[in-house]
Amino acid sequence: MQNERGTAAGGVNIWSALTKLAALMLVAACSLAPARAELPLEQLSTTALPVPNSHRLYLSDPSLGHIVDGRIHVIDGEKMRYLGLIGAGFAAATALSNDGQTLFLATTYHSRLQRGIRTDVVEAYNTADLRLKYEIEVPPRRAQGLNIKALLRQTRDGRFLLVQNATPAATVTVVDLQSRKVSAEIPNSGCWGVIPWPQAQPKFSSVCGDGTLATFELDASGGLASRSNSVRFFDSSDDPIFMHYQMVNQELVFVSYGGSVYTVDLSGAAPTFPSAWPLLDTQTRKQGWRPGGMALFAVDPRSGRMVVGMHPKATEGSHKNPAQELWAFDLQQHKRLARVPGHAAVSMAMTSGEKPELIVLNGMDNSLVAFDLLSARGLSKPSRKSAPFGEMPVYIETQSP
């Protein structure tokens, strides 16, 4: 007979006895088990990054699901291998220094993460080891948006960094990289973007809504020495140009929404404008082919090859569509050389070196696709493709060819 406490009539507690028996069996099992050697403690270490070269890629990822915590993914473009990550704050703009030794970021932080006191800074990272070298606080007015080249650039002489602002009034913050201080804030009202001239003197241009190009020359301290506006070179109502641009020697190249190429010669004291030429022939125009994407075209200045992301049946507002095809052109002859599948490209960049390549960012799966640029056809089949990188990458920064 057993009472409610599990005690037999003789007064022995059954559960206590069972517990003792289980303990004795566990001790016996442990004594019979073979002794195991302790694992050595893991030793943490760091590995040096490969020396930065023209195939090093910096992939801007605003991470829209948590945009206050954006990323820059650092990729070895030759091996399509992940190298590291740089925290980028809120919707950072990026620019590699002219010598490739520094990656500049213009970004924003708030004291309460997504609210509170706003602080805008320019950060300088060493590309050799991705360590922060220094930061410079700038006025809290920088333009916040998906990264494009025209938001942050270094002047050709290396002295100044130019930051496009929007409040929404358009101004440009000039940062002196020698003194690491803000030199000036220059209005570029009615215009947008910072495009440094290829000459040594500190000079930059902005594209204006009236179809002209505004040019700003800086003095020795980074202040405004002069401003001038060019003649109208495109129609912003009928055929606006994308703000993405490429510099080919001393010539600036733009592509328009309607599929024309506009060039600006910056070899003289003032810009001049060669005649625009079309990407489209009669048949492709009837089919509604148009350029589309973010950094939607790239140019290799040595070979004179230009590649543009194109999509058919274009409509109003489709100018950001991923590429259904990539079209390769000869810039000098204004001739199309090849048409290949587009791999849903939304941005692209050229690498330099002995074997220049085109790297495109697939907007559907976040992979990178490499093409041999100097194939006989003008553009090869893809030579390799990476695994997906990041959450929502939008822009590839590389060392300029």
Q: Describe the global form.
A: globular
Tell me how many strands there are: 29
CATH fold naming of the domain at 238-401: Methylamine Dehydrogenase, Chain H
CATH secondary-structure class of the domain at 238-401: Mainly Beta
> Quick one: biggest sheet?
5 strands, antiparallel
Tell me the strand percentage band: 35-45%
Rg for CA atoms: 29 Å
Poorly predicted regions:
4-11
What proportion of the residues is helical, as a percent range?
under 10%
Question: Mean pLDDT, as a whole number?
Answer: 92
Structure classification: mainly beta
State the separation between the terminal residues, measured CA to CA.
93 Å
| CATH architecture annotation of the domain at 238-401 | 7 Propeller
How many helices? The count is: 2
* Fourth-level CATH superfamily of the domain at 238-401: YVTN repeat-like/Quinoprotein amine dehydrogenase
What does this structure look like?
With 401 residues, this protein is mainly beta. The chain has a domain of 164 residues: Methylamine Dehydrogenase, Chain H, CATH 2.130.10. It has two helices and 29 strands. The strands form seven sheets. Strands 20, 21, 22, 23 and 24 form a five-stranded antiparallel β-sheet that branches. Strands 3-2-1-29 form a four-stranded antiparallel β-sheet, with no helix packed on it. A hairpin with a 5-residue loop joins strand 4 and strand 5. It is globular.
